[in-house]
Amino acid sequence: MILGKKRRIGRKIEDISVGEKLKLTEKIEDKDLLLYLGLTNDSNPLYIQHDFASQTIYEKPIVPTVMLIGIVTSAISKYLPGPGSHIVEQDLSFPKPVYHYTTIDFLLEVTQVNMEENKIVISIQADNEEGECVISGVVGVIPPTLEERLISQTIENI
To answer: Is 23 a member of any domain?
Structure first.
């Protein structure tokens, strides 16, 4: 409980099925990039300096891959399977760069449910406005798991 309010948790493994999908669309804005750069103190000129980026193979500033991973992580934490879940492994590739102001369509799909390990595998595919793949791969996720303990039951009943 946070400030006397019960928090919703995501779905447990027994409530998740292979084939479930989540689609979402995100647009990368300057404010997002500036927040990331400020929080991480990342001063890579490839991410923000047009003069520098114009001299690279990318020709203009690109979005840091960790920001894209953050969108995937957030989707898992918020929706599939939701609050209380935890990513334990990832294998993602970024075949095309993502530029500032790009709109990205994400598709997350449950491809495996392993009841014994309490783990699911989610495939990730993200495309830019031109339909080009900018992220592909898989993540291993532990859905929310709450252990029943005598003390938590006692506190609930007070």
So the answer is: yes
Q: 126 pairs with which residues across the strands?
A: 106, 135
Please give the tally of structural domains in the chain: 1
Report the DSSP beta bridge partners of residue 109.
Answer: 21, 123
How crowded is residue 156: how many other Cβ atoms within 10 Å of its Cβ?
A: 9
- Order of all β-strands in the sheet with 133-142: 21-27, 103-114, 119-127, 133-142, 86-93
Q: pTM for the full model? A: 0.84
84 torsion bin: left (phi>0), alpha (psi -120 to 50), beta (else): left
For 139, other C-beta atoms within 10 Å of its C-beta total 20
How many other C-beta atoms are found inside a 10 Å radius of the C-beta of residue 71?
19
pLDDT in tens, 69-111: 999 999 999 999 999 999 999 999 999 999 999 999 999 999 9
| CATH code, 74 | 3.10.129.10
Q: Is 29 helix (H, G, I), strand (E, B) or coil?
A: coil
The Cα–Cα gap between 108 and 126 comes to 9
Q: What distance in Å separates the CA atoms of residue 38 and residue 152, rounded to the nearest whole number?
A: 39
